[in-house]
Amino acid sequence: MRVLAAMSGGVDSAVAAARAVDAGHDVVGVHLALSAKPGTLRTGARGCCTVEDAHDARRVADILGIPFYVWDFAERFTEDVIENFVATYAAGQTPNPCLTCNEKIKFAALLDKAIALGFDAVSTGHYARLSLVDGEPELRRSADIGKDQSYVLASLRADQLRHAMFPLGASVKADVRAEASSRGLAVAEKPDSHDICFIPDGDTRAFLGRNLGERPGKLVDAESGAVLGEHAGVHGFTVGQRHGLGIDAPAPDGRPRYVLALEPVSGTVKVGSRDALAVREIVGTRPIWPSGRALESTVDCVAQVRAHGSTAPAQASHVDGELTVRLDEPLRGVAPGQAVVLYRPDAGGDVVLGSALITATGR
């Protein structure tokens, strides 16, 4: 097959490309230039997709003996990921930019261009397993649960997954680094990126403040309605947040307060006890079915609401484009704007059933 290997400049995509070459595919490497400021360089594990990363990816391609190109997707990335991120926070929701990037950039813009150029598949360094079952794709958790990225890939459609390759799905990170070292790849010990790539200093609140300005509002006790303080904008908060609330006085019971809800129109941030964060029902829209098979009845499943968050057994139903998930056990800190991802409860809860964008929750 002709395979386009997406090479971020990190160890994972480097080894994934090397394995595609070893499998006998005709491989071409490509690095996506996503930054509107190409002079920006990585510092330690802060950010990714920088000039330094492009150089690292090119050096790996040279060692593998494959052609290498840099494609400028900065404008598309700004529109689909960064602007969406800012707008979602402004609406009082909590986005996942990595999920959006996978959906809109790596498996929409990139894959579309790859197919148009005659490639059969796009290879990435994601930790997830992918196979065909009765001709349909089956997306599963990685063998390395600590690195599993099936959650951020669950927004991909079946037609996209049919042209995807995840060569690292059966591996653990330590083995991938060891393999990179044995291949003589300089990225073998390169730190992983743990931050939002377009916020290299890691200060999300400051980034949103620069883009949205001050939008003053009140911090309100959800139970009593008492005003506890003021803030510069709901975009500085997310459901489940405990620190940085700016409340001087402790709660009457002496326990910490948490953000329970955000109301962007009134500028109100409601806070309360940890127990009030418990959610037993999740409603989502824009459901996506990686296998191509939508739910036709209420099914047992395992629900996950963060990339590396807790899971809970649940029952899910799909009616008129809306997904309703009823949890057997409560989850805390579930925020509109996040994704709920459903896994099949058999086989260890590894197989992705579908995903949806969370729009509402209930107790």
From TrEMBL:
InterPro entries: MnmA-like (IPR004506), MnmA-like_C (IPR046885), MnmA-like_central (IPR046884), MnmA-like_central_sf (IPR023382), Rossmann-like_a/b/a_fold (IPR014729). Keywords: ATP-binding, Cytoplasm, Disulfide bond, Methyltransferase, Nucleotide-binding, RNA-binding, Transferase, tRNA processing, tRNA-binding. It catalyses: S-sulfanyl-L-cysteinyl-[protein] + uridine(34) in tRNA + AH2 + ATP = 2-thiouridine(34) in tRNA + L-cysteinyl-[protein] + A + AMP + diphosphate + H(+). Its EC number is 2.8.1.13. GO terms for biological process: methylation; tRNA wobble position uridine thiolation. Residues 147-149 are annotated as: Interaction with tRNA. Residues 280-358 form the tRNA-specific 2-thiouridylase MnmA-like C-terminal domain. It comes from the Bacteria. It is an enzyme of class 2 (transferase). The keyword Transport does not apply. It is found in: Cytoplasm. ATP binds at residues 6-13, 32, 125. The record marks 126, 338 as: Interaction with tRNA. CDD domains: MnmA_TRMU-like (cd01998). One of its GO terms (molecular function) is methyltransferase activity. Residues 206-272 form the tRNA-specific 2-thiouridylase MnmA-like central domain. The active site is at residues 101, 197. GO terms for cellular component: cytoplasm. Catalyzes the 2-thiolation of uridine at the wobble position (U34) of tRNA, leading to the formation of s(2)U34. PANTHER family: MITOCHONDRIAL TRNA-SPECIFIC 2-THIOURIDYLASE 1 (PTHR11933:SF5), TRNA 5-METHYLAMINOMETHYL-2-THIOURIDYLATE -METHYLTRANSFERASE (PTHR11933). Belongs to the MnmA/TRMU family. HAMAP family: tRNA_thiouridyl_MnmA (MF_00144). NCBIfam families: PRK00143.1 (NF001138), trmU (TIGR00420). This is tRNA-specific 2-thiouridylase MnmA.
